[in-house]
Specification:
Distance between the termini: 12 Å
Radius of gyration: 14 Å
CATH superfamily: Class I glutamine amidotransferase (GATase) domain
Strand order of the largest sheet: 6-3-1-7-8-12-11
Order of helices and strands: EEHEEEEEHHEHEHEEEH
Largest sheet: 7 strands, mixed
CATH topology: Rossmann fold
Structural class: alpha/beta
CATH architecture: 3-Layer(aba) Sandwich
Number of domains: 1
Number of helices: 6
Length: 173
Amino acid sequence: MKIAIVIAPTDFKDESLSKAELLLDKKGIGYEIASTSKGVCKGYHGAEVKQNVSAENFEPVDYDAIFIIDGPGIDSSRLFENRQLLDRIRYAHENKKPIVAIGNAIKVVAKANAVKDTKIANVEDEEAKRLVELYRGNITEEPVEMHNGILTVSDYSYIDKAVDLLAEALGVK
């Protein structure tokens, strides 16, 4: 069992990544860090994380899910416009692999054209809301939504529930 955790090369949300890693470790779910830059990625609050795999070149068939971490780097590095990454997310979704997105990372999943007719968690990011509506997703009032293989989380405080739902979708107890 292995998932790809996608982070921006700079300004990813440190606390989202560290909490996700902690909870995934507790569930025994392995992961690799994927980013669009080589080497060390720097979080918004200064955390340094070495990426294991390129977010533009990883093979979705090698992973059981994709987990996209939020933060200002989603916008500054324009992950939602990275065609290779979007293609990988779309391929994984089409092949029934769960896709997880937190906060403003939801716009990456929307731009991958993976949200049509899918319930999406309420998110504060206005651009994410606009893109979800543009790609015909349905924003709900819920902070966490798992629908059509897309698991969306409104913000960092709900990562524990998201990891529980991901583990359940992957058949992990």
